[in-house]
């Protein structure tokens, strides 16, 4: 059989590798800055662009989409060419993909610190950037599917299945979750409201973890781990079960992020059931990876690549056992809104994604530069310091989560909350925040060692931009019979279509009833749209990232209703575009904060949090007192919200600013009566108006909330 000559494109892989390392170091550095601010708020240097609320989405986007995303593309472009015995479908598309992705990351680096964000976790980027992401993702997909169609290898190896599932599912998730109505070039409102927005967001958020941080890296595991171990994958049949069961079940699990919230109970229960079912396929994949090392365990002692990969797969197993356990309601009641969740996420992020990336880079770079790793000893030091970093990071946060949750729920013998002041539960865990930062520094130190090692490795070798290869052409003859899945592997278009069907079913079953059956979201007559001033205040709340530290969801626990007031109802959120339930309480829940403090208290709290809450780890926000809201945007905001169903009267936008100024004057006059002079258009006035509105649309308990 005649062999065809062709060349693999290593240059595109090289560029994605460089971006991976550079953005990895930057993303981790931003993470350490954030971690430091949790015990030293002054670490924001008094700048509005570096506060915790603004740089948290910068950190998550940098790590997920810049570090892990670029690593994913590097791993996919390298392995796919070799698994399919062909060059990528189009060099031009490869480079459009690379530079387009880096420009998207640059746009995130600029817009997020400026406060331009949607507030939806892992989807904070505003609408023009969302469109750019869609275009570049389609470019990636065309290049990938085109490469599969022109392959010289008849069967698609298991790694390719996971790459296909990643492309298809992320496309669906991103498009559905990103429906929004633009107000200005960098401001939009979510198309969905309240409970529905929360469901769509966590359907996206959970499955962004599943199909951006998990499935592509399972594909990478299935390629690079056997290569590094020089062993075949343990079980082909197990990989089939692993793949189809994982992608079908995962998509249903999103509601477990919303247990005990205002989401309908049936949706919460579905999320719990499917989350628990996820243990089986997840551990099937982990075991398939670890058992691939049978006969090669003696090499793990010396080979840093195998060390990283073993710990990565083990961390994947730990995270995918813990996730389903956290979806059990009585475990979730303790862990949710605490640092336990942060620890859980970082075991997956630092252990599974980070270590698998490190192992992949240590294996790939010497081969692309035709040399040996510069220093195996340094790579082993990186492994141990990185492992220590994960432990020092995670263990204090697990402890902090349990300690704080139990303090929240603790009642004394007289039946009163033992710690009624929320701040008491924060000051107790500050030392653990310090340890977390130390763990981050250790992990970053290891990554810097790796960067040095890889640069020295490249310098001692010679880069092969075009790697010569040969393979026989794909025969066109029809093959009859064989294992059913082997037949499916020869039909990439049908395979892709079946993948799409498998991932769509769960989303449709959960979302359609929540949107179409009104009894799922009982309306409350007294709930009214926000006033124009409150609307500006809400947008400032989003801009400053307040929902990174404060929730707006009082759960139906005695400890929460005693501390905050009446538990939250689904009908209270029908005009919330987007929802702001939050996912972490570094500060108290704010859903019932309206009318509990006077305007002067809120003014002083934002100017100097320690003046109202001694020991607070919240930074001051002095710029809110000197910057003014833009009255020219009011009409556009009213029109956009009317488009998505908020019942503002036709033409109201023409007189909205009159109402705004009337309410602003009431607040500024009240402050003036207490010897505080402030402009009626100051941002702080709008923010106070919003905070004073929260939770006041329905009759609530009169329990005082302690800051």
Automatic annotation (TrEMBL):
Enzyme Commission (EC) number: 7.1.1.9
Reactions listed under catalytic activity: 4 Fe(II)-[cytochrome c] + O2 + 8 H(+)(in) = 4 Fe(III)-[cytochrome c] + 2 H2O + 4 H(+)(out)
Membrane-topology descriptor: Multi-pass membrane protein
Binding site for Cu cation: 206, 256-257
One Gene Ontology term from the biological process aspect of the record: electron transport coupled proton transport
Superkingdom of source: Bacteria
Enzyme class: translocase
Domain called Cytochrome oxidase subunit I profile: residue spans: 11-475
Primary site of residence: membrane
Co-factor: note: Binds 1 copper ion per subunit, denoted as copper B. Binds 2 heme groups per subunit, denoted as high- and low-spin.
GO CC list: plasma membrane
Compartments where found: Cell membrane
Transmembrane segments: 12-40, 60-78, 98-115, 127-149, 156-176, 202-224, 236-253, 273-293, 305-321, 341-363, 383-407, 433-455, 493-516
Residues where heme b 1; low-spin binds: 59, 346
Key word Methyltransferase present: no
Named cofactor requirement(s): Cu(2+); heme b; heme
Pfam assignment, any one: COX1
Pathways per UniProt: Energy metabolism; oxidative phosphorylation
Keywords from the named record: Cell membrane, Copper, Electron transport, Heme, Iron, Membrane, Metal-binding, Respiratory chain, Translocase, Transmembrane, Transmembrane helix, Transport
GO MF term set: cytochrome-c oxidase activity; heme binding; metal ion binding
Amino acids binding heme b 2; high-spin: 344
Alphabetical list of NCBIfam families matching this protein: ccoN (TIGR00780), ccoO (TIGR00781), PRK14485.1 (NF011053), PRK14487.1 (NF011055)
UniProt family annotation: Belongs to the heme-copper respiratory oxidase family.
Protein name per Swiss-Prot or TrEMBL: cytochrome-c oxidase
């Amino acid at each position: 059989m005649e062999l065809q000559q062709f060349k693999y494109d290593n240059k595109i892989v090289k560029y994605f590798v460089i971006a991976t390392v550079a953005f990895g170091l930057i993303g981790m550095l931003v993470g350490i800055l954030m971690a430091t601010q949790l015990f030293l708020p002054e670490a924001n240097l008094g700048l509005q662009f570096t506060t915790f609320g603004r740089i948290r989405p910068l950190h998550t986007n940098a790590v997920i989409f810049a570090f892990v995303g670029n690593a994913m593309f590097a791993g996919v472009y390298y392995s796919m060419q070799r698994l399919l015995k062909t060059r990528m479908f189009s060099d031009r598309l490869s480079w459009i993909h690379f530079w387009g992705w880096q420009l998207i990351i640059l746009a995130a680096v600029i817009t997020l610190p400026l406060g331009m964000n949607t507030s939806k976790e892992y989807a904070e980027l505003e609408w023009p950037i969302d469109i750019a992401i869609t275009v570049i993702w389609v470019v990636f997909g065309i290049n990938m599917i085109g490469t599969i169609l022109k392959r010289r290898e008849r069967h698609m190896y298991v790694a390719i299945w996971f790459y296909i599932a990643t492309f298809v599912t992320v496309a669906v998730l991103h498009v559905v979750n990103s429906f929004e109505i633009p107000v200005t070039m960098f401001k939009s409102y979510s198309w969905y409201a309240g409970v529905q927005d929360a469901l769509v967001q966590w359907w996206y958020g959970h499955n962004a973890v599943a199909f951006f941080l998990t499935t592509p890296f399972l594909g990478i595991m299935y390629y690079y781990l056997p290569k590094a171990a020089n062993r075949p994958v343990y079980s082909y049949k197990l990989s089939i079960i692993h793949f189809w069961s994982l992608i079908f079940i995962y998509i249903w699990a999103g509601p477990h992020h919303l247990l005990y919230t205002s989401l309908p109970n049936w949706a919460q229960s579905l999320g719990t059931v499917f989350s628990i079912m996820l243990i089986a396929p997840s551990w099937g994949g982990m075991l398939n990876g670890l058992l691939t090392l049978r006969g090669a365990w003696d090499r793990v002692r010396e080979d840093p690549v195998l060390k990283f990969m073993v710990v990565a797969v083990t961390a994947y197993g730990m995270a995918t056992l813990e996730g389903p356990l956290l979806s059990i309601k009585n475990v979730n009641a303790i862990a949710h809104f605490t640092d336990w969740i942060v620890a859980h996420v970082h075991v997956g992020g630092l252990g599974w994604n980070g270590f698998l990336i490190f192992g992949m880079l240590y294996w790939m770079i010497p081969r692309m530069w035709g040399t040996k790793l510069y220093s195996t000893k340094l790579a082993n030091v990186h492994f141990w310091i990185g492992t220590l970093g994960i432990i020092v990071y995670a263990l204090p946060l697990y402890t902090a989560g349990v300690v704080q949750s139990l303090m929240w729920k603790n009642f004394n013998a007289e039946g009163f909350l033992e710690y009624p002041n929320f701040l008491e539960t924060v000051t107790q865990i500050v030392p653990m925040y310090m340890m977390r930062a130390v763990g981050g520094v250790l992990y970053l130190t290891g990554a810097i060692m790796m960067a040095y090692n890889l640069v020295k490795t490249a310098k001692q070798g010679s880069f092969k931009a075009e790697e010569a290869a040969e393979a026989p052409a794909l025969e066109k003859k029809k093959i009859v019979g064989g294992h059913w899945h082997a037949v499916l592997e020869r039909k990439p278009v049908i395979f892709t279509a079946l993948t799409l069907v498998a991932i769509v079913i769960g989303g449709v079953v959960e979302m359609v009833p929540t949107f179409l059956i009104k009894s799922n979201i009982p309306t409350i007559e007294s709930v009214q749209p926000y006033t124009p001033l409150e609307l500006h205040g809400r947008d400032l709340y989003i801009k400053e990232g307040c929902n990174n530290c404060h929730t707006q969801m009082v759960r139906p626990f005695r400890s929460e209703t005693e501390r905050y007031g009446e538990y939250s109802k689904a009908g209270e959120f029908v005009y919330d575009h987007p929802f702001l339930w939050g996912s972490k309480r570094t500060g108290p829940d704010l859903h019932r904060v309206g009318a509990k403090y006077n305007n002067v208290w809120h003014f002083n709290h934002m100017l100097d949090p320690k003046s109202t809450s001694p020991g607070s780890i919240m930074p001051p926000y002095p710029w809110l007192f000197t910057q003014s809201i833009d009255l020219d945007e009011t009409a556009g905001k009213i029109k956009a919200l009317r488009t998505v169903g908020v019942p503002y009267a036709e033409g109201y936008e023409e007189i909205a600013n009159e109402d705004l100024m009337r309410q602003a004057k009431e607040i500024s006059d009240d402050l003036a009566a207490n010897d505080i002079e402030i402009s009626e258009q100051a941002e702080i006035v709008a923010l106070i108006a919003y905070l004073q509105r929260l939770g006041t649309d329905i009759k609530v308990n009169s329990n005082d909330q302690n800051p």
